[in-house]
Amino acid sequence: MLLPRQKTPDLKLPTLDHGEFDLTTDTSDRGTVICFYRGLHCPICATYLTEFQKRVADFAERGVATIAISSDGEERTRQMAEKIGADTLRFGYDLPLAKAREWGLYISTSRGKTSIGIEEPALFSEPGLFMVTPQQTLYYGSVQTMPFVRPHFSELVGALDFAIKNDYPARGEYTGAV
Fold this sequence. Notes:
Elements: E1 12-14, E2 20-22, E3 31-36, H1 43-61, E4 64-69, H2 74-83, E5 90-92, H3 97-102, E6 107-109, E7 123-125, E8 128-132, E9 138-143, H4 153-166
Parallel strand pairs: 3-4, 4-5
Antiparallel strand pairs: 1-2, 3-8, 6-7, 8-9
């Protein structure tokens, strides 16, 4: 389990049209929102990433970078980016499943073709949403075991406004006896 205020795993991946993404050198004033998604086969992911694409400018105004990442290869990732009309959202691809596990993501096995007729990969990670500080510590994290019921980007933007205004720290950091 990742812990707030503690260093996250490193993350280095190729992106579509933006060179290599390297979390250790990704610079932004307030950090990076990382959205791990299941892949092209997931229609819920397409809807979710469409909303993320709409919020990229909102995050940027607050000094926060954004990236969407899956274990799909370049071709399937480009298809997803085109499907949602991405013009500002960065897409990372080829996420190793061992790295997904380091981030606490759940791994699923294929059930064949999805409701939209696209074959699921043999193995893929389930969704996760993280905000990582410029010091590469965890500020916010949410992981799912299924594609349903994900955090809303509009709420995360609102939470950022509150956190910035009130210098609100990452919570959930306590690891002592209970």
